[in-house]
Amino acid sequence: MQTTQHVFFERSEMKDRHLVRKKIREHIADKAKSPILIFPEGTCINNTSIMMFKKGSFEVGGTIYPVAIKYDPRFGDAFWNSTKYSMMTYIFNVMTSWALVCNVWYLPPMVKEEEENAVHFANRVKAVIAARAGMSMLPWDGGLKRKKVKECFKEEQQKKYCQIV
Q1: pTM beyond 0.90, yes or no
Q2: Where is the Phospholipid/glycerol acyltransferase domain (predicted)?
Q3: Is 18 inside any structural domain?
Q4: How much of the chain is helix, strand and coil, in % rounded to 5?
Q5: What is the pLDDT of residues 74-93, one digit of tens each?
């Protein structure tokens, strides 16, 4: 990982966030360097939806080259449901799958608009990716699969349901 210049950080540490932002800005300013690969959801999910993007990737400036990735589960499922399977079972399932088929779409470059903040830019990029991959967009963080759902999220969904009814 050191040869490919990975940047590790602890998301809960504010100083780490600032350091990563600085390293990314320096990287994109150097035109001799390759583009950075960032997974802005911060976690993997079940291949049906796109969760909230972390805004930090969209605050640093530069051009975003969106890529939509969707696995085809017909021959083998690349998604690891850690609540259902152990790591060893998951590795066994992947290694004994007939094939892991993945569709990858390289989408047109996107740049933050002048009056747009990082959250709106992230949502615009997310919408383009979701539309191309045929996935639904979820407004919450991928960390919810490991934590309890906040009451405000439950209340928001209840209000939306009440409006429908």
Answers
A1: no
A2: 1-70
A3: no
A4: 40, 10, 50
A5: 887 888 877 888 999 989 98
